[in-house]
Amino acid sequence: MAEAKTVSLELPLLARVEGEGALEIAYAQGRIAGLKLRIFEPPRYFEKLLEGRHYSEVPDIVARICGLCPAAYQMSAVQALEAILGLAPTPWISAMRRLFYCGEWIESHCAHLHLLAAPDFFGCGSVVELAAKEAAAVRRGLKLQNLGNRILKFLGGRSIHPVGARVGGFWRAPGAAEAQALLAELQAALPEAEALLDWVLAWPLPESDQVFESVALRDPAGYAIETGRIASDRGLDIGAGEFERHFSEHQVPHSTAFHCLHDGRPYLVGPLARLNVNSDRLPLDIRQRLHQAGIALPSRNPFHSAAARAVEVLYALREAVRLLSDYAPNDTPYLEAGARAGCGCGVTEAPRGILWHRYELDEHGLVRQARIVPPTAQNQARIEADLAATLAALAEAPEPELRRRAETVIRNYDPCISCATHFLTLKVER
Amino acid sequence: MKPRLGVYKFTSCDGCQLALLNQGEGLLALLERVELTHFPEAGPNAPEAAVDIALIEGSLSTPEEAERIRAIRARSGQLVALGACATAGGIQALRNATEAGSAWRAALYPQPEFIATAERSLPVSALVHVDLELFGCPIDAAQLLAALNALLAGGRYRPSGDSVCGECKRAGHGCVLVGRAEPCLGPVTRAGCGALCPGQGRGCYGCFGPSAQANLASLKTVFANLGLPPDAIERRFAFITAEAFRAAGEKHG
User: What angle do CA A128, A131, A132 make, to 5 degrees?
Assistant: First the structure.
C-alpha cells in the first residue's frame, strides 16, 4: 500500500572533499529513480596545453593538475617519457622515487584520514570540532602528515608542486647529513604510525557488503607503489601499454569528469583495491592486525578504505626508513638522453589509485599528444554504484541522516575532484 | 567577536588551500583566532555568509565563476587573491593566447555542449577589486600566515617586488645561469620561494610571476646567447604565470 512518493535531495556543495562537486538523488515510490554525482570543477585542458611542450617541461606542468598528489603525476609522467627515450632508472633513482612517493602517500592519507574523513566517525562537522574531542589523535595525525611533507621536501624542495624531480631522475642528490636528520625523525615516528593504525581500526566503520572488482598495480618485488603491472582480483594482468584495450572513458551529461569503466563495468581503485589485490605482499604483522580487527581480505566493505589508508601510512613510513637507512648521495642523480620520437605509457599508484599517462613525442622531443586518466575518473562510476547500494534502503530516512550517509560514502573514496577533470579525446561508442 | 575568515575555490588544483591545511598545529592555532565561516575542504560550508577576510584560490574561467566572485566581493571586507591562478589566471590561462576556448573543448569532449567555460582564464583582479595578492604556484605558507597575522592585527602586508636573484645570493647558491649556463628566470621572477630551484641546481621557472622591475628583453638576449632557440625561449615565459609575464614584457620590455 506504499503511497507513490517522490523525494529529491540535493547536496549543493560537498564538504571535506578535494575540489568541488555535488550530489542529486531522487526517490520515487521508495526506490532510487535517479542518482547523479555532479562534478562541476571547470576543465583546465591539461592534455591540450601539454601539446607542443618539450618533454623536459612535462613534470612541472602535470604537477599542477593536483595540489594533493603532484608527485604521483610527476612519477607517472617520467615513467611514460623514459619508456620513449629509452632510459632505465638506476637502483639509486628507483629507490629515491619510491621514497618520494612514500612521502606523498603519508601526507595525502593523513590529510584525508584526519581532516576529511575522521569527523564523520566521531559525530563532528570538521577537524576543529574533532580536535576538541580527540586532541592527541589529531595532533599525531598532523605531525605524521608533516613528516610526509618533509620526505617530499627532502627530494623535491617543497611538498606542493615539488621541483626536484625530472625526466631521468632527480635534479640533485641530497647530502648524507640531510638524510640522517630525516631518518632520525622518521624512526622516532614509527610508534605513532602504529598508534594511528590502532586508532583507525577502532573506528565504528559501517557494515557494507558489495560486489566490485578491485584494480591495482602488482609488483613481484613488494607492495606496488611506483611500478608494477595492472592487476585485479578477477584475474586482470596487463602492462601499462595495454590499458586502453581494457578500459574506456565515457562522458556523462551531469559531470565534467569522465566515467572510466573496465570492460564496461565500474571498478574500484585506491587503498582498499591495493590491499585487496596485494594482501600477500603486506608484512605479516600488519595482516595479523587486520585479521584481529575483523577485516578479512579481500574486503567487500568499501568503508574499509579508511583502515587501508592507515595500513599504508604505516607501511610507507617503514619503507621510507628502510630506503633511507643505507642512503648515500649519488654523483649522477639523473640520466640524460637525446630526443626521440615515439609513444609511451606510465602507470603508478597515486594515493587515490592508479594514475595512467600516455605521451606521444615527435623527433624534437615535443609532445604531440597526451592522455591522462586520473584515479577519481576511474572511481566515479563505483562511487555512484556504492551510493545506490547504500542509499536504496534509506528512502524513508529523514533528510539529515540521508545527507550524512551520502557524504560519508563519497568522502570514503577521497575523491580528488580537481584531478578528475582532465582527460582526453575519446571515441564515442555507438 | 572573532574575525570571520572564508576560503573560496575557483578553477585550481587546490594546492594553495593545501598550503594552509599543511600547516599542522599552526593551522589549529590560527583557527582559534578566527571564525572559519566557509572552507568546504576543511568542513565549514556557508558560501553566502559575509566575512572579514576572503581568501580566493583559483582563476575565473566560467560564467558562473564571474558571478560568484562578484557576490563574494560584495560581502567581504578584505579580499586576498592566493597564488598564480588567482593573481595571473594560472597555467590554464595558456589557452588565452590561442583560439583554444571552444576548439579545445570540442577536441576533448565528445559532447562539448555539456561544458560551460569562458574563452579566457582570468585573474581575480580582472573582475573585482583585490586588496592583497600573494604570489606563487603554490603560495608560500609562511607568507600566508604572515599576511593573515598582519590583516588580523589591522595592519597591511605587501609582498616584496624584488627578484629571486637576491634570495639566491643570500642562500649562498651558485648561480645556475652564469656558473652552469642553465636558463634561469631568477633575474626577472618575484622573490618569495627562497630560491628553491637554484637550490636544486636547476633554473627558476617563474612560478611567483614577474618581479617589479623585470627586464625580460635583456634576459631573452642572455638566453639566446646560451644557444636557446626562440620558441624554447618563448615557452619559458609562457608557463605558470604566462599572462603576468606577457604584461610585464609590454611594460618594461
Answer: 100
A-facing residues of B in 3-32 (CB < 8 A) are 9-19, 21-22, 24-25, 27-28, 31
| B232, closest residue in chain A (CA to CA) | A54
Question: How high is the ipTM of this complex?
Answer: 0.94
Grid look-up 599576511 returns B147
- The H or E element spanning position A117 is none
Range among A246-255, A269-278, A420-429 rated most confident? A269-278
Between chains, do A172 and B16 touch, taking CB under 8 Å as contact? no
Quick: pLDDT tens for A5-49: 566 666 666 677 777 778 888 888 888 888 888 877 777 888 888
Give how far Cα A249 sits from Cα of A255, A261, A276, A377, Å: 13, 6, 24, 8
Residues B41, B15: contact at Cβ < 8 Å? no
Instruction: Look up residue B162 and give its three cell numbers.
Output: 624584488
In whole angstroms, what is the distance from residue B6 CA to residue A428 CA?
42
Please name the helix (run of DSSP H) or strand (run of DSSP E) that holds residue A371, with its range, or none.
strand A367-373
Residues 115-134 of A with CB under 8 A from B: 115-116, 119, 125-129, 131
Q: Which domains does chain B have, with CATH numbers?
A: 4-153 (3.40.50.700), 164-252 (no CATH)
CB-based contact A215:A268 (threshold 8 Å):
yes
The answer to whether residue A159 neighbours chain B at the CB level (below 8 Å) is: yes
Q: Tell me the domain boundaries of chain A.
A: 46-393
C-alpha cell at A95: 629507490
The region of weakest confidence among A250-264, A349-363, B81-95 is: A250-264
Q: Which of residues 145-164 of B touch A (CB under 8 A)?
A: none
Helix (H) or strand (E) holding A188: helix A176-201
Is the separation of the CB atoms in A323 and A99 below 8 Å? yes
Say if CB B70 and CB A10 are below 8 A apart.
Answer: no
* Domain A46-393: CATH class, spelled out: mainly alpha
Residue A315 makes CB contacts below 8 A (sequence gap 6+) with: A223, A282, A283, A286
Parallel, antiparallel, or unpaired for β A247-250 and A342-350? unpaired
